[in-house]
Amino acid sequence: MNLDFQEHQHWMARSIELAASAGNAGEVPVGAIIVNSDGVVIAEGENRRERDRDPTAHAEIVAMRAAGVYLNSWHLDRCTLYVTLEPCPMCAGAILAARVGLLVYGADDAKTGSVRTVLNIPDSAASYHKLTVIGGILESTCRQQLQDWFKSKRI
Fold first, then answer.
1. 136 pLDDT exceeds 90?
2. pTM of the model
3. Which terminus of the chain, N or C, has less C-beta within 10 A?
4. CA distance 130 to 49
5. What is the rounded distance in angstroms from the CA atom of residue 107 to the CA atom of residue 67?
């Protein structure tokens, strides 16, 4: 799970592609992938709340559900989750519940970021799992993608 910076950028770029797909479908553009300890993508997710009419269908949740099916286990401790936006409280809790080994995210979320920005759920007393976190990978690209999408909705 100790990938180098270029590998993190590579996987985040794939997450950005998924985010673009979500945005094109009318969803907030957030994408996520899960990579196993062998460096193989085992699951992908993009925001699907509008399409699925499901308030829990955030990119991270969609990807973790698929990874659980792929692994036939809810334990994702040997996996890395890449997501374009810092997880919200729901997703941060699910990431901890799944025992994700490493979380890598792009842009901080000044409104609901619950890993470092607004709250720090992984390091709180409520956390029973030690989560390693790397933030800011391709941050400007991730942030611009979100800003452009929201700007297009306001026109």
1. yes
2. 0.95
3. C
4. 29
5. 23
Instruction: Give how far Cα 55 sits from Cα of 32, 40, 51, 58, 68, Å.
Output: 17, 29, 10, 8, 20
Determine which one of 27, 44, 46, 60 is catalytic. 60
| Residue 69: other Cβ atoms inside 10 A | 12
The Cα angle at residue 30 between residues 97 and 142, in degrees rounded to 5? 115
Catalytic-residue membership of 60: yes
pLDDT at residue 79 tops 70: yes
Per-residue pLDDT at 1: 46
Integer Cα distance of 75 and 51 in angstroms: 27
Q: What is the mean pLDDT of the chain?
A: 95
- How far CA 4 is from CA of 8, 39, 101, 117, in Å, comes to 6, 12, 15, 24
Q: Which residues of 89-107 are buried (b: 16+ CB within 10 A; e: fewer)?
A: eebbbbbbebbbbbbbbbb
Q: What is the pLDDT of residues 21-41, one digit of tens each?
A: 999 999 999 999 999 999 999
Structural Rg of the chain based on CA atoms: 14
Residue 76: φ, ψ to 5°: -110, 30
Q: What is the pLDDT of residue 128?
A: 86
